[in-house]
Amino acid sequence: MFASKLPNVGTTIFTRMSQLAAETGAINLSQGFPDFDGPLALREAVSRHVLEGRNQYCPMTGLPALRQQVAAKIARSYGVQRDADSEITITPGATEAIFCAVQALIHPGDEAIVLDPCYDSYEPSVELAGGRCVHVPLALPDFAVDWQRLAAAITPRTRLIFLNSPHNPSGALLSRADLDRLAALIRGHDIHIISDEVYEHLIFDGVQHASVLAHDELYARAFVVSSFGKTYHVTGWKTGYVVAPPALTAELRKIHQYVNFCGVTPLQHALADFMAVHPEHVEELPAFYQAKRDLFCELLAGSRFTFKPAPGTYFQLADYSAIRPELDDVAMAEWLTREHGVAAIPVSVFYRDPPADMRLVRFCFAKREDTLRQAAERLCRV
Ligand SMILES: Cc1ncc(COP(=O)(O)O)c(C=O)c1O
């Protein structure tokens, strides 16, 4: 018998639901990706760089011009200077950045705290490093940090706490006061932070993102991860970055160079060109996605789902207790897909121990207006 290193990992719900959506012809609001393209200038830039021969390995740390654009974006967004050479590394997706950061931090026997519900790559990354995840549920209904439970979960073996704001799947945000509270909680402990901020620019209602990048005390012990895929509507490019103080960056790069060595060269050239010419893209993003959220919520108001508009991300949670309370959320997501032609993601899959009465599904609203209208029409008939 082959001894699996990840015996509990199977095909993820994201793959299963997207497959089911394809088989049944359902509108796919399950997996988180846009059904529209990234900016034309960005796509043209890739073609140009491919045709002009920028097709060989780039530096292991990422293209210098792109790292400089990331530093400029950080300075504009958060008013802090992060060094393009010693603190910023371009990676093939945020997922690889998270994986490498975990490998850098976790030794066998260490514990990492995850706040459930959480993104599915965290736990396998910790397990492959020989560590163990300690699951602390966020407090319902707003998916807020339960500070007492978090404090109680810290042990002498705790080496890492994962943060994710704006939060997938709930859209919840951490505030500056939350970051201060966390800094006070871990002061004097040998605990690091991986702050997954891939939705940093998808934040609504005029709220400013509280980035760990702008919190000096937390940043001193953090890896902050983001994704060009989310920000530029090109999730399939799997290009992201990680920002960390120089000593942590040096450790991460030791691992990154043997996992991938470097990201994809022409994509990095194109992103650097586009960011230099179109800094307004990032500033316009909150309004762009807020309009989609508002449209989807307005249309869904005529349904039997109940919900609060998401404060961030491109996901909207919806409670179906008034529709089929007897179904668990996995069964509900399948039923919605097969019987009503709209694919969604059950929220319980983001938990180790989901609350038994959880009746929430997640819809992705990173979709064209006609897709959202069609989907909502079907959901209003449920
Ligand atoms: C919370 C979170 N982190 C990380 C990622 C992965 O980003 P990337 O596609 O750049 O690897 C995702 C993608 O869905 C996500 O939702």
Which spans have pLDDT < 50 for at least 5 consecutive residues?
none
Helix coverage percent: 40-55%
| Heteromolecules bound | pyridoxal-5'-phosphate
- Net shape: globular
CATH topology of the largest domain: Aspartate Aminotransferase, domain 2
Strand order within the widest beta sheet: 2-8-7-6-5-3-4
Structural class: alpha/beta
CATH domain class name of the largest domain: Alpha Beta
Q: DSSP helix count?
A: 14
Write the CATH homologous superfamily of the largest domain: Type I PLP-dependent aspartate aminotransferase-like (Major domain)
How many structural domains can be distinguished in the coordinates? Answer: 2
Mean of pLDDT? 97
**Taking Cα atoms only, what radius of gyration do you get, to the nearest Å?**
20 Å
Biggest beta sheet summary: 7 strands, mixed
Cα(first) to Cα(last) distance is 46 Å
Strand segment count: 12
Please identify, by name, the CATH architecture of the largest domain.
3-Layer(aba) Sandwich
Order of helices and strands: HEHHEHEHEHEHEHEHEHHHEHEEEH
Strand content: 5-15%
Mind sketching the topology for me?
Elements: H1 13-24, E1 27-28, H2 40-51, H3 64-78, E2 88-91, H4 94-105, E3 111-116, H5 122-128, E4 132-137, H6 147-153, E5 158-164, H7 176-186, E6 192-196, H8 216-219, E7 222-227, H9 228-231, E8 240-243, H10 246-259, H11 265-277, H12 280-300, E9 315-319, H13 329-340, E10 342-343, E11 345-346, E12 360-364, H14 369-380
Parallel strand pairs: 1-10, 3-4, 3-5, 5-6, 6-7
Antiparallel strand pairs: 2-8, 7-8, 9-12, 11-12
Pyridoxal-5'-phosphate is lined by residues 32, 93-95, 119, 164, 168, 196, 198, 227, 229, 235, 238, 240.
